[in-house]
Amino acid sequence: KSGFVSIIGRPNVGKSTFMNKVLGQKIAIMSDKPQTTRNKIQGVHTTETSQMIFIDTPGIHKPKHQLGEHMMKVARNTLRETEAILFLINVSEEIGRGDEYIIEMLRNTSTPIILVLNKIDLVHPDKLIQQIEVYKDKLPFSDIVPISALQGNNVDKLLEVLETYL
Ligand code: GDP
Ligand code: MG
User: Which fold has domain 2-163?
Assistant: First the structure.
């Protein structure tokens, strides 16, 4: 099984940390400089049974700047052409404008969206449940997976879930 996976989320939710955890030290990943290429391959994760190619979705998390129509189209095409979308949020912070912006971008996308609640190491389980309640009515998520990208908690489980969409 193999396929492409888009990763989106506003700045500082832990996208790079997650990629580092998944890809290990094998790949010199990513600066956070503005993208010059349209879509950046962040890395490839290979197991005995699967290969996942992770793709960054540039420009999608910039609510302050109006995206050009072209960039918007590129972002939408990326989302449509991948097998799954990982939407990362920081579970230790309240939902904000950056998150809402992405949710609107994702509305009407037919690609399966997996909501990844990152930084669970920072919150009480009650807070986690509360956040799931907040998000689950916003979009029809295919799956909701809590993780700690920093500590590695549940990252394997997320990869297992992801594999089912390839
Ligand atoms: P990005 O902007 O989405 O790529 O976010 P980064 O991966 O750069 O992470 C932003 C900050 O959040 C860094 O200081 C990370 O160490 C921290 N961080 C990322 N994941 C976690 C997590 O699961 N738990 C905690 N406590 N911190 C995290
Ligand atoms: Mg980053």
Answer: Rossmann fold (3.40.50)
